[in-house]
Design brief:
Number of domains: 3
Strand content: 15-25%
Distance between the termini: 62 Å
Number of helices: 12
Shape: flat
Strand order of the largest sheet: 6-5-4-7-8
Order of helices and strands: HHHHHHHEEEHEHEHEHEEH
């Protein structure tokens, strides 16, 4: 019986540790997923706390995983595990059965799971935790060991330090479609065998106080300016297979709103500075200006990509400014600003602005 208990403890512990570490590699990604749930539920007031919640959740997962393996305070840890898995099962179940959220972020962006896969994983863990609680009634807790306390202390401090590091320096393992070595244009293409959703467009017009609805193929014979446009409705006719491009809605536009994405990708070599906003501009102003000057000294083109073009115009008059959707930039640049060394649409280098020494060396040898 003790052997079964030992196996169950290790399976549960390793799964929780692995899940926490994968997400600790990119806590911002988890915070965006939490925001997605909050938006669906209308809990907009909690948006400012999602990063803190994400970081603490990752620490808690790793700590409880380690605690169940070393056998520390086993009864208390068992109840903590049960509470965690009930919460996770609720979230994955909600995502699966409501259809409002496609992925739950259980293993971050590195191991994307569908809502169904995440839900089944949580059901499996739930059963194991129940088995653990039953078997633990016959298990006598081991004696207090200093090594166990040391391991538990590391499992608390370590994940916090890892997350603080990646928030400043980008994820240690970049699993996002904008990672170094990827080609953005290729990532924007639909995968082989992808079938998109098919919609029928219904137009609603008003005439003589009455509303009329019709599609593109069935406009009224007497259609003229007397028909006043009211609205348009999209009706899902056929569901696609869910395969999507890794990068969607990526578009770079000039200040005059001209799409210049493909034109930029035709540039052989350039530095792309992605700064979603300028809330911490004072902190990175000097470093970025130094990078701009160094790139210019090597005759390398520079472009600033931002979601706040108005502020960018005030701060930077000496380099081109392009506009990009803020949501897209959250995926592309986890740190503000993130520096991309580009060859066409190929990402040859990707750095946090704090890695100025590495950036300067890369520019020098480019």
């Amino acid at each position: 019986m003790k052997k079964i208990l030992w196996i169950v403890r290790w399976i549960i512990g390793l799964l929780f540790i692995f899940s926490g570490l994968v997400k600790a590699n990119d806590p911002l990604g988890l915070s965006y997923k939490i925001q997605e749930f909050f938006e669906v539920w209308g809990w907009h007031a909690f948006h400012d706390y999602t990063l803190f919640l994400a970081m603490m959740l990752n620490v808690f997962e790793i700590f409880t995983g380690v605690a169940v393996i070393v056998g520390w305070k086993i009864k208390i840890v068992n109840w903590l595990l049960l509470l965690l898995i009930i919460a996770f099962t609720f979230l994955t179940g909600y995502a699966l059965f409501s259809g409002k959220i496609t992925t739950c972020g259980c293993f971050g962006d590195c191991i994307p799971l569908s809502a169904a896969q995440s839900f089944m994983k949580d059901i499996f863990l739930f059963v194991l935790i129940i088995i653990l609680m039953v078997l633990s009634e016959k298990y006598h807790q081991s004696e207090f060991k200093l090594t166990s306390v040391l391991i538990l202390s590391i499992s608390l401090v370590g994940p916090i330090e890892i997350q603080l590091f990646v928030l400043k320096n980008l994820p240690i393992v970049d699993c996002l479609p904008f990672k170094k070595g990827n080609n953005i244009q290729q990532q924007m293409q639909l995968p082989a065998g992808a079938i998109t959703d098919s919609f029928a467009l219904h137009f609603i017009y008003q005439k003589n106080g009455k509303e009329f609805s019709f599609d593109q193929a069935h406009f009224p014979v007497d259609f003229d300016s007397s028909y006043i446009y009211v609205n348009r409705k999209d009706e899902l006719v056929k569901k696609g297979n869910g395969l999507k491009a890794a990068i969607a809605d990526f578009s770079l536009r000039t200040l005059t709103d001209t799409d210049t994405t493909n034109l930029l990708f035709d540039t052989p070599k350039y530095v792309m500075i992605m700064a979603k906003d300028f809330s911490e501009y004072i902190e990175w102003e000097g470093t970025v200006n130094k990078i701009i000057n160094q790139a210019a000294s090597h005759k390398i083109s520079i472009v600033l990509v931002t979601a706040d073009a108005k502020t960018a115009e005030e701060k930077f008059q000496n380099i081109p400014i392009l506009k990009c959707d803020a949501t897209v930039m959250k995926t592309a640049a986890r740190v503000t600003p993130t520096i991309f060394l580009m060859q066409g649409s190929n990402i040859k280098g990707k750095y946090s602005y704090r890695n100025s020494t590495e950036i300067e060396s890369a520019l020098r040898n480019w």
